[in-house]
Amino acid sequence: MKWILLCVFVAGAYATCEDQNVEACPYDPCLDLTCDVEGAQCQPDECEPCEVTWTADSADVTDQCEVDSDEDEDGVGPLTKEQRKERRKNRKQTFVKRKLAKRIEKKKEWKQMSPEDKQAAIEEKREKLVQKLLAKGKEDKVERLRERWAGKTARIQERKDQLAAMTPEERTAFFEEKKAAKKARKTEKRKTFVKGKKDQLKARKQVKKQARQDKRET
Question: Which of 51, 101, 187, 193 could bond 45 through an S-S bridge, CB–CB 3.0 to 4.6 Å?
């Protein structure tokens, strides 16, 4: 009996998701969620990152927490599939709004900074990135970044001189051309992203289909 329990425990410990290509949730699924269980901590589910699990003292208390979190607005009965989908959508929108508000606030702070403070902030950010990459053993990437940073100041000054020498019409045409090129790059990037997502979805469906066929054969 002990050996059976041990095997079950080991099998559970090394269980894997049916879908091997699990992607991170695009927003924080634990945002604004609470649980009445003392000491309960929220974390994304391993196989369904946009769903959450609750643990307290290393014990799974998700069922106890979902009694409250999965009730409808009137507190009557569990949420339907559509309501759960709407709730996830609202969480994502809230997360995106908060992130956008922080970005806008940082832009305001950046505009109010002096050139010296801006340069110091840039150097600090670069140093953190370098230390992070060095910790991962990516010395080649650090070298490439340093080479790019070394010539960036000169390129910025050269661009400023070019703009100063342009007429208002030439400057307007320059920015219009730059805006069009940026839009084209963004469109191409979006197309590549959508194509990649479609290919991933097709591959997942194929894997699930093959798994069902294998299961029927056994």
Answer: 51
Report the relative pairing of strands 52-56 and 59-60 from DSSP bridges.
antiparallel
Predicted confidence (pLDDT) per residue in 96-151, tens digit: 888 888 899 988 998 899 988 888 888 899 899 999 999 999 999 999 988 888 87
Amino acid at 136: K
What's the pLDDT at 19?
A: 53
- Enter the pTM of the model: 0.40
Q: What are phi and psi of 60, to 5 degrees?
A: -80, 115
- Torsion from C-alpha of 95, 99, 100, 102, nearest 10 degrees: 140
Residue 217: strand, helix, or coil: helix
The tokens 């370098």 sit on which residue?
130
How confident is the model at residue 18, as a pLDDT? 56
Question: E strand or H helix at 60, and its extent?
Answer: strand 59-60
CA dist 75 and 83 (Å) reads 13
CA angle 213, 48, 97 (to 5 degrees): 140
Q: From CA 216, how far away is CA 218, in angstroms rounded?
A: 5
Q: What is the pLDDT of residue 22?
A: 61
- Sequence-separated (6 or more) residues with CB below 8 Å from residue 31: 91, 94, 95
Residues 6+ apart with CB under 8 A from 171: 163
